[in-house]
Amino acid sequence: MQQGRARPGSLNEPIPGIFMIFGLFRKRNHNQIIVVRQYETLTAMARQPVFYTDYDVPDTVMGRFELLSVMMILFFRRTRSSATSGQELAQEIVDAFFEDIDYSIRELGIGDNSVPKRMKKLAGMFYGRLESYAAAMDASDREALAAALRRNIHPKAGEGAPTMLGLADWMVTAEAHLADVTEAEIATGSATLPLPDGFGKDVA
Asked: Are 29 and 58 in contact, with CB atoms under 8 Å apart?
């Protein structure tokens, strides 16, 4: 699975940007450190080069959006069974995600008048993915999950698109891992995700 080789430095490009989110917490100071800590963990996982070298995620603006959406969705699903505070934390992290995207779009030079329309489209994409991935995972349907990933991450590739089974399998593993994360870890922003196979290998 070599499609979408990572380019040096490309994982630091916009969308997602990194931590231009503090204005979001002016009314939520009690959660600022917790949300930023958890958001950093999720974005760090989405920046792992192995996803772009071995898991068929294209190293593009939209490829990075898709992968970070996966991380957010996994965390959001984990907190469904959490106390109200955990669910609120998850929503604040998703809010931070969109705040970050908004900032990154503006950094790309998109005109202010176009940003709300683009944000509305991206929000619709995110919640559509949440629904389709959740349906497949709730049904323990690996093939359906891979098909949804394939459709969303490679929308123009047609029959030549990669199967995305590797990423689907990692998502299933990640969900099982998150199920063992304690409520104390959720409450302190300390939840982790499992490293994908191939992590740490040299990238040509």
From this structure: no
